TrEMBL record:
Native organism: Pseudonocardia endophytica
Any one cellular-component term (Gene Ontology): cytoplasm
Coiled-coil blocks: none
Molecular-function annotations in GO: adenosylmethionine-8-amino-7-oxononanoate transaminase activity; pyridoxal phosphate binding
Associated pathway: Cofactor biosynthesis; biotin biosynthesis; 7,8-diaminononanoate from 8-amino-7-oxononanoate (SAM route): step 1/1
Cofactors: pyridoxal 5'-phosphate
Protein name: Adenosylmethionine-8-amino-7-oxononanoate aminotransferase
Reactions that this protein is recorded to catalyse: (8S)-8-amino-7-oxononanoate + S-adenosyl-L-methionine = S-adenosyl-4-methylsulfanyl-2-oxobutanoate + (7R,8S)-7,8-diammoniononanoate
GO BP, one annotated term: biotin biosynthetic process
Gene3D superfamilies assigned to the protein according to its UniProt record, in alphabetical order: Aspartate Aminotransferase, domain 1 (3.90.1150.10), Type I PLP-dependent aspartate aminotransferase-like (Major domain) (3.40.640.10)
Assembly: Homodimer.
Record's keyword terms, sorted: Aminotransferase, Biotin biosynthesis, Cytoplasm, Pyridoxal phosphate, S-adenosyl-L-methionine, Transferase
Binding site for pyridoxal 5'-phosphate: D254
Length: 427
């Protein structure tokens, strides 16, 4: 075992940690050894990340869009500390506890009214896997095992676990084209930005033709997240809802990215005021503190269904307690005005980017801002440029984008958008 260098306080020196990180620690979408050095972060509070050399960076990514309240929020810290004094974990098989029940009750209250049943898991992709299991088992239990296929539209991303990755568009995203034991998905074209009747006709044709084999349609409503941060007209959700009702297919909304206010409505489904049969939540559910996700379904789906899905940390009390505190804090704090203000500040800061060389489009919805380039981003160069401007961003493919914490100020957002413009120029 190699000897590690330590400073006078007994801690491993940062340069040693970074060298070990580069050789041994596998980061998302990265090779080994890593081509460059990761950013070392020593602490975080509010909307700022602090590096060992004393720099402070405004986090434009909100810890992968989860830290909507920022870091070290006293209400969320207190929720974790209080629960830790009672119990950190207990199995959820045959046992229940207040934090989980309280969280499920709150989620039922704030989501579309037909969603009355909650299955807790540890991550957004697993919530999607649970949703697919629900839908396929629903039809098996009703004597229609041939209804096992899932329809979705291109440009989506539902996670990198095996079943969730199957639903990702193999030709338009950072995932490999997994197929495996699940029936291959039925793909519609990516939804256009605006409402187009020809696209509606395609949806109608696909669903009506394949209704006998379709268990469900699974989509990210209004915003396709990591597949390209693209927006589409909410009226397509109405089309899907009517098609599913007419053709006896279940409708699943993956709101891991869009849930809890990010798009300007509490849930993206609210833009269309419709009820899915199943909804997947994660991301901002715990305010970025602990892993937890939830799959909610209607009574129609849940009735008589024994869901054969289990996990060690299902219903974890610590995660449930902080999730309840996070959702409650969001509802109490006037999130809608915060998101509206961030949207206006993003417009002010990103409008000048429209004239930058290589910029194809600038788009903003709620607390989401995107600069789309006409070429793939040089990620190390773009990231370094953003850091020099005082912001932490994580560009991908041909996108420089931000999903800032809702507690960001005008000055914070100005720093983020300056970093985005610098990243677009450098990338």
């Amino acid at each position: 075992m190699p000897v590690t260098a330590r400073d006078c306080s007994g801690r491993v020196a940062n340069d040693v940690l970074l060298a070990m990180d580069r050789r041994h620690v596998w980061h998302p979408h990265a090779a080994l050894p890593a081509p460059g050095r990761s950013l070392m972060v020593e602490s975080a509070s509010g909307v700022r990340l602090r590096t060992p050399d004393g720099r402070e960076l405004v986090d434009g990514m909100a810890a992968s869009w989860s830290a909507v309240h920022g870091y070290r929020h006293p209400v969320l810290d207190a929720a974790v500390t209080e629960q830790l004094g009672r119990m950190s974990h207990v199995t959820f098989g045959g046992i229940t506890h207040g934090p989980a029940v309280d969280l499920c009750r709150l989620l039922i209250e704030v989501t579309p009214e037909e969603l009355q049943h909650v299955f807790l898991s540890e991550s957004g992709p697993v919530a999607v896997e649970v949703a697919v299991t629900m839908c396929q088992q629903y039809w098996r239990d009703r004597g229609k095992p041939s209804k096992s296929r899932i329809m979705t539209w291109r440009g989506g991303h539902h996670g990198d676990t095996f079943g969730a990755a199957v639903l990702g568009d193999p030709g338009d995203g950072p995932r490999p084209p997994w197929h495996g034991p699940l029936p291959p998905p039925l793909f519609a074209d990516r939804p256009p930005d605006t409402f187009e009747h020809d696209y509606v006709a395609q949806l109608v044709r696909l669903v009506e033709t394949h209704a006998d084999e379709l268990a469900a349609i699974v989509v990210e409503p209004v915003v396709q997240g990591r597949g390209g941060v693209r927006f589409h007209d909410p009226r397509y959700l109405h089309v899907l809802r009517e098609l599913c009702l007419a053709c006896d297919v279940l409708l699943v909304f993956d709101e891991v990215y869009t849930g809890f206010g990010r798009t300007g409505e509490l849930f993206a489904a609210d833009h269309a005021a419709i009820q899915p049969d199943v909804m997947c939540l994660g991301g901002a559910l715990t305010g970025g503190y602990l892993p937890m996700a939830a799959t909610l379904c209607s009574g129609r789906v849940a009735h008589g269904l024994t869901l054969r899905h289990d996990a060690t940390f299902m219903g974890n009390p610590l995660a449930a307690a902080v999730a309840h505190a996070s959702v409650s804090l969001l509802l109490e704090r006037g999130w809608r005005s915060e998101v509206k203000a961030i949207a206006s500040w993003l417009r002010a800061g990103l409008t000048p980017a429209r004239s930058l060389p290589g910029v194809r489009e600038v788009r903003i919805l709620g607390a989401i801002g995107v600069i789309e380039l006409d070429h793939d981003v040089d990620v190390p160069a773009a990231t370094s440029a953003a850091v020099l401007a005082g912001a932490w961003l994580r560009p991908m493919r041909n996108l420089v984008y931000t999903v800032p914490p809702f507690v960001s100020t005008r000055a914070d957002v100005a720093t983020i958008t300056a970093g985005m413009r610098a990243a677009a120029l450098a990338g």
